[in-house]
Amino acid sequence: MISRRKALVAGAAGVVVAGGGGVALAVREKPEPVSPASVDPQGKLLWRNWSGIESAYPAVRSAPKSEAEVAQVLKTTAAPIRPVGAGHSFTGLVPTSGTLMTLDQVAGIDRWEGDEAVVWTGTRLGALGPALAAKGRAMPNLPDINKQSLGGAIGTGTHGTGTGFKAIHGDITALRLATVGGEVLECDAGRNADVFNAARVSLGALGVITQVRLKTSANTRLHRHVWIEPLAETIARCEARWAKHRNYEFYAVPFTDLAANITHDETNLPATPRTASSDDAFLGALKQLRNLLGFSTPLRKAAAKALLGATKPEEAIDEGWKLLSTERPVRFNEMEFHLPPENQMAALKDVVAAIETYRKDVFFPIELRRIAADDAWLSPFNRGPRGSVAVHCYYKDDYRFLFELIQPIFLAHGGRPHWGKLHSLKAAQLSKLYPDWDAFQTVRRRLDPKGKMLNPYLRELFGA
């Protein structure tokens, strides 16, 4: 999408010199955050999430090979018991001093029931795409990153974008839940319906979902189009684009007055596979503009518009599972809230204004998506569609401003937090955001009366 980073940096430096700001040319790269010890004094190995801000030394590491083994481990192992997938959640869902359970060996497609795939939840989304494609089928939609396990994606309400598409859990028609009592419950709209409604987004607090029956769609080719334009133009046209395109999202780039737009639409044209991603180079350029011109917002915006505003659009045609998700090699921390669609743009404008006023160090783009409604009790999309706004922070930078500066904006606009992304809400606040909060709590207490699935973070979250 953009010219090489060296050219961008050189161009930005030229703008600084021309503007008389040559004395402020370099911001020293921050050091790597300090990592916890790989082994604790008792010899227990470190677990750490993808961004590095959550960690633990579990006493037991469990990797069951079957559903029966999952149920037996839940019944007998040390608490707290926490399932783990790819570690892509930024909240404290996983850390435990008790048992850490991975379902990596309980993976793959078990069978087909018509066009619905019965899938083990240890399956990674990136592996599920080609497995479904081998049968000419596909997941209707995919999230931005496909490294997650299916179980982790379901448990946190992970989603893609498009007004006609639900989050991943919205396409589940049945599931099997292993409980701390050693049972395996069959759940759907007619069997254990209350558990089905609670389990589809349950943060791993009810037990472990071992298997799901998943709706699929025909494996069609999509046309991917990526382009940059002024942010004001994107905001003015975004509603029409969400209505027109199969998938649409955009990234508002602070300190540039620009936005990167992405559409995907079905096509019969022959495949023209995606070239190597330029996302890391784009982020590198934004970081260098921050480092070089962070002292002057007008200069930073002028340089960004000159260097990034005329970039060529990106085009690709391929199967959807190859295009909808993107590699994210640059680590970050993230806060994402889901808002009533009519409040989404107002929230974005407030977020951009706050960042450009108070946080000159931010350079990551802000992601905006749209998601259809579903009826899972703790789904952020329960009882109505939502528009998501996601604010990212470079992993070396201080992310506490997300709680202090950004979260109040989201709450003022009626937002619900993404369960896997940063937020500081607890039971008293969350119960007001979710109409079925008490019903969920009733099911949770019945299935796990002693709280074996609750680590300290979840105990606070649920007021347990």
From TrEMBL:
What is the superkingdom listed in this entry's lineage?
Bacteria
List the keywords (alphabetical). FAD, Flavoprotein, Oxidoreductase
Q: What is this protein called?
A: FAD-binding protein
Where does the chain cross the membrane? none
Q: In what residue span(s) does the FAD-binding PCMH-type domain sit?
A: 53-219
Q: Does the keyword Oxidoreductase apply?
A: yes
For this protein, the record's InterPro entries field holds: ALO_C, FAD-bd_PCMH, FAD-bd_PCMH-like_sf, FAD-bd_PCMH_sub1, FAD-bd_PCMH_sub2, FAD_lactone_oxidase-like, Oxid_FAD_bind_N, TAT_signal
Q: Does the keyword Ligase apply?
A: no
GO MF annotations for this entry?
Answer: D-arabinono-1,4-lactone oxidase activity; FAD binding
Q: Which PANTHER family match?
A: D-ARABINONO-1,4-LACTONE OXIDASE, L-GULONOLACTONE OXIDASE
Q: Which GO terms describe its cellular component?
A: membrane
